[in-house]
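SUBJECT: protein chain
CONTENTS: sequence, structure tokens:
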Amino acid sequence: MLTAVGKVLKPFGVTGEAVVMPLTPDPERFQGLKKVLIDINGRMSELEISGVRFSGNKLVLRFKNYTDCEQVNKLRNQLLLIHDHDRIDPGPGNYFIHELTGCTVLMGGEKIGDVSEIFEPDGPNPLLRIDTGSDHFHIPFLKRFIARVDVANSVIELDEAARELVNILT
């Protein structure tokens, strides 16, 4: 299985560097990353990372054999992927998006739906889209609403504090 660790946003300058949006809680992890996979026109290709730096708050990567902005522009909006065995542990209380998607959502021991999608707005907290079968609603992935996450059994249990929010949204 593959995990997305970044998304190519655009070229940086004219010498083949790329601005990358990190999809990992620790952008510094790119310092130790040697290669990534990318789907180019339906074909998985390996890119060797030859340089990592930060320009202000932007992550800038250089890929081996990419020497100009036109080459990098072809990578625009593509996800940078790694094999799961190469990923770092996200740490306690942190999860990979693909681990949450598909989880059964419980409240008070009863199933209220399944996580069908996760949105990452500009803020720090993702929104879970919970499909109920006949409808859907969104709930912020915040500690005050989440009582327990069990990725091994694909279960997310909402806290009672979420009940009022769920009642408003459904």
Notes: The two ends are 34 Å apart (CA to CA). Residues 161-169 form the longest helix (9 residues).
